Structure formats: C-alpha cells, structure tokens
Amino acid sequence: MKTFTRIAAVAALGALMGTSALAEGLYTPNLAYRTGPFAATGIPLMNGQADYMNMLNARDGGIGGVMIDFDECETGYSTEKGVECYEKTKGKAIVTQPWSTGITLQVLPKSNVDEIPILAPGYGFSPMADGKVFQWAFNTPLSYWDGASIILKYLQDQGDLSGKKIAFLHLDHPFGKEPLPYLEQKAEAQGFELLPIPVGLKEMQNQSAQWLQIRRERPDYVIMWGWGAMNAGAITEAVKTKFPMENMLGVWWSGHDADLKIVGDAGKGYKSVSWSFPNPDAPVMADIKQHVIDAGKSQSNEEEMQGVFYSRGLVISAILAEGIAVAQEHTGKAEISPADLRWGLENLNFTEARLEELGMTGMVPPFSTSCSNHTGHSGGWILEWDGAKFVKASDLIMPDSEAISELEMAKAKEYAEANAPWPVNEDCEM
Amino acid sequence: MLYRTAGQFKTSYQADQALFPVRQDAFLLAVILAFAWVIFPLMASEFAYQTLLIPILIYSLAALGLNILTGYAGQLSLGTAAFMGVGAYACYKLVTLMPWLNPVVAILFSGVFSAGVGVAFGIPSLRIKGFYLAIATLAAQFFLVWLFEKWGWLYNYNASGAIQVPNLEMFGVYVAGPQASSVTQYYVVLAIVTLMTLLCINLTRGNLGRTWKATRDMDIAAELIGINLMRSKLTAFAVSSYVVGVAGALFVFMWRGAAEPNLFDIPLSFRILFIAIIGGLGSVLGNYLGAILIVGLPVVLNTLPEALGIPISSATVEHLNIMIVGSLIIFFLIIEPHGLARLWALIREKLIIWPFPH
Which ipTM value was assigned to this complex? Predict the structure, then answer.
C-alpha cells in the first residue's frame, strides 16, 4: 500500500508540475504519429527523421560536440494530442515539429509568445514564407503554393494550358484548400478552367462520386492534394475508371510508394512533385546503415529505406541539424537556445558543395533562407511511377516566385491584422 | 464515521428538500471548490492548465448540457458537437464583427444562437422518439458541419477554412488568443462553468426539471397529468443547446485557439456522449467524474512512464493508454451500469450507514 501511495503521489506530482526528466543535450522533440489513420504514411517519415539524428549521435557524437536528444511525442495526427505534446515539450525544446497543418495552425499564434521556432518542412501555411511576419515559423524548402506552381509549369511545358480543363482533387481540410488561392489566380491568368473537387474526410476511401464527376467532365489533367487514405483511394479509383495515369499529378504527400504498390503496373505514369529523392548510393545512407540499422537502433527496414518518404524524413532532420550547426557557429556556443536556432534556420545555405559534404547529393535541391524568406523556394522534381518505384521525370523546376511572393505578403499581412497585436520583425532589412 | 448524519434534524419540508440535506456534502463541495479556485491555480503548471484543468472543465460543461437533454428529458441526441460548433462560430462572428464586445458577454451570448438552432432541430422530437430521434439529431450533425465548411462568411473567407481566435482584452487583461495567460483563461472557464452548473442544478430540481423527468419516464402519463410535452421537450432542447453552445465557445476561445470544421464532427459528439453515459445519465456530478476519466486519465497515464523513469516509446504508451482506458470504461460500466455518479451515491450511502449495514 505504501509503495502504491508513493507511486500515486509521484504520478500526481508529475502530472501537475509537468514532467521534467533530465536529459543530456539539445532537446528536439518530434510530434510523431505512428498510430491512428495516418500511421502508414507517418512511420517511414518518423523513422527517417529519427535515424538521421541517431546516426549523427553515433557517428559524430551529436552536433558540435552536443548530443541531440531526439524524442517523439505521439499525436496520432490528432490536433488535441498535438497541443498536449506541445505543452509537454515546450519547456526545454529548442524546436517544435508539429507534423500536421491542424497542429501548425494551433501552435503558430503561440510561437510569438513562447519564442520557439516551428519547423514544418513542406507543410503548414504557405504565407509562413514571409519571415518578417512569421518570425518563428519555417516551411523549408517548398511551400504548397510553390508545389502548385511547379506542377503548372511542368504541364505548361507539355503544351499550352489555355482552354484546358484541370480538375483539382483535394482533401476538404485546411491542407487540401491551401493551394486554391494560387490556382485560382493562375487559372485566370493562363486561361485554363479550374475544377475544384473536394473529398471529405469521411469519403477518403470511397471516392466514386468524385471520380464519376471526373469521368463526366473529362478534364485534361487531375492535380491531387491528398494525404493518408485519400491517396490510395484516388489512385485505385483512377485505375478503375481508366483515367490516363500520365495526366494525373500529386503533391509530395501524394507520392507514397506503398500507395502505388497497390496498383503496381497499372499506376505507371502517375506523377508527383517532390523536393526530396531517395539516393541509395549516397554516403549518408551507408553511414545510417552502419551506425543505426546494423546497430539495431532503428525501427526501419531495407525496403522502407528505399522509399521516397524515408529519405524525406532524412532530409527534414538534415535541415534541422544544419540549422543547429549554423547557429552554433554563429554564437560560438554548443548549447544553443531556441532564439539561436531561429537565427540558424534563417541562415541556411544548402549549396551543392554543402550537400556533398553532408553526403546527401541529389537528395534535396540546393536552397538558402534569409530573415525575410523562411521557405527557400528550392524548386522540385517531377517524379514518375514506373511500376515498381518512383523515378525522376524532369530536371529541377523552379516555382514562379514573383507571383507567389506577392500573394504570400498579402495573405501574411491579412493574418497579422486578424491576430493583432502581432509583432513583426522590424530589423529584417531584406 | 465520516458521513454520520446523526443529530442533523430536519424540522421543515424546506430543510428536507435543501440542496445539501447532509452537512458533509456541503463540506465536501467546499473543499472541492477551494481546490479548484485556490489550490490548483497556485500549483498548476502550464501543462496542467492546458491538458487537464481547462479541458476537463469544458468537456464537463458540454456533457452537462447533453445530460439535460438526454439524462433529464430523455431525448437521445447525437448532435452535441455540431451545437458546440454553432456556439464557437457564433462567438467568432460576434467578436470579429464587434471587436469592442466583452469576450465573456460574447461567449455567454453565443449560446443563444446554438439554443435557437437546437430548438429548430428539436422540433422532430415532438413526433419521434428514441433511436429515431437520434437519427434526426445525427442529421443536424452532418448538416451543420457541412455548413461550417461551405459557408465562407462564417470563417471570414479565410483561405484555410479554419477560425483563429484573435487576442481579446477584458479590463486590460488578455483573456483569449495567443497572448492570454493560462491562469486567466482557467479562471474565466471556471467562473462560467461554476455559474452554469449552479444554474443547471437548480433548473433540474425545480418545476422545469420535474416536467423533464416526467417526460422522460413516461410521456403519455406526463401528458395526462397536464404537462405540455411540446413545451417540455423544446425547453430541454433550448437549455441543453445553450449550455452546449457556451461550452463550444469556451472550447475554441479559451482552450484550442483555432478550429477547423471537422473538429465538430461526430467523434466529438460521441466523446461527450461517452462522458455523460459513463459519468451517469441524469446527474450533474457524473459529468465531472466522466470527464476526469475520459479526458484527464489518458493525459496522466501518458506522463506516467516518463515520471517513473521507464524507458518506453511514445507510440507504445499511446497504444497501452487506449487499452487501459478502454478496459477501465468496461470495468466501471460492469460494476455500475448507471455510471460513476451512481457508484459514488452507493459509496456515500454505505458510508452513512457504516458500520451497520442492513
């Protein structure tokens, strides 16, 4: 009984005071989702992120001589759990990796108060690119508007878009609606007809109504903004209705190997824009195999490591690690603060040479950030499914930065006004 | 021993029908209120506010609203989350259209909109009962969430389709939005929840509550003794939706800070229904006990392994958590099918007659 009361007392105390288990090094929590409806897509990403940091710890003893305390807090992609994790970790975290547009939207307004950088690579709110307004948020290396722009540019290269009809199949959720303002603007400018087709969260696995509409409207192209179960649903439905696969393109989250393996050869020609690409011959892969996989510290496996999502996880951790390294060099101290990390993430410079040094040649396009540009707008590749894996189908395509940055500034300003008082980075001269 | 009622004489009917016929009950409540108003705020961390104290209070209030309709008036509803959504969106529109409005007034006023919507969807209850009514309220659930998605005016045509709580001031202190401190938000929530609970306890003990209970127990008999069923059912829908709407406004404005339409989808309705059922239908206390079990316990369980220093991955903890909470729900429902409130009532009764059981 005595021990029981003691355990209960410890538990109550822990819950009330917030847990503060002491750990060595820089605490970089990840709000992971290995459970819940999106687990299938989450696991390879989380494994990639964790493996890269474990590799740095094993190979180099961390970054700049400090170990990285890479921890996961499970959210199951639920916003409520995400906020719980944020509150739990913010005490000593130097970064927040929210991993869902919903959680990002919740945490974003708090970032000015808590002053912890949010790192949301390739997701979140596109106007976060405006670093003067969103001082603490980073969505490197590409925003959703960049992705939409790259897809349109690629299609333009295949033939003039004016008079064409493009269906925009998207999840009816903040994430899916994100590229709409940009696409609408472009539809008017380039003279194509945009046909937005929303897929409700409850209809993800059964999209027969949406595809009936696509069959009736006969669009020239289908652009897909899907996530989780929606991707597999759309791809199998496209195969069933015999939609020409080469005319279907998805965002980077719609390019998951496992979704296409279901249809195999029938999915040949499906494309997805991406800012990361697996390079099995890269030195970093060998290091991970040696220090992490063979040492039994990973939850991953050989097959998963070949996939697009695993390598994207590696790139995400590499961006964070580089931010830490840049900040350490700038401040001259190893134990950096969240504010130092923000400086680091604002001064990333991924050149070809630096990527080669990191052993990641070809895994991410070169890009750099600044205090006014929190995205980097790296450009991306169009990947194509060849029946067994994704291959590159284009050279690096750059987004239409001018039109995008105008839209970004306007929307960022709108956001700041709606959330006044909203501090803006006045020192940024760029 | 603790609950000895010897010597507490009642000399009038009024004393017999008082809120606390047993003195110890009043004392216990005073202790709980002292904890809620003074001791928790003194020792709680940011984490405790944001994941335990504030959400438990808000979920309890939502369950209380549902309990009035389902537990007291016997009308099964599956649309609670949608009515919460009406409260939240109404509050959002109120504060963005009239930024000078006092936020607490806005929150209390937004319940009026949800009461109106609740009455409109409650009209079918005059003709249909039981499971059929549940399906009719399910229609409210689907329709309203669809409306939150499609009606751009509701979210001020925001590109992401979500609503964001602006910074709101009251007497020079931020009470909502990212600048507000947790302790202020906690006190606002606590004050509103205390007020609402007091209101609901007295409503359910009074004339209105008795007509609701009569309607629940046998509507034909109730009609025969002269109760106007239409008035009884519609007032239950109105009061219930009002409380639920206020809970919805608190949910977004005092806790979440942002909301997307699918937040108010059916899983939230079920969650609140579970709180009400496990806590005990037809009781006020049950909502709090249910919310502690369903909302609070998983959070505490999640922090346990770390607090005890057990190295275990976060995903495994989550899996274990779901299993433990699930089996606890089954366990409690087996030992007392009428919910936690009934369990407490039995314990209390045993304490009163202790040490001489019948």
Answer: 0.79
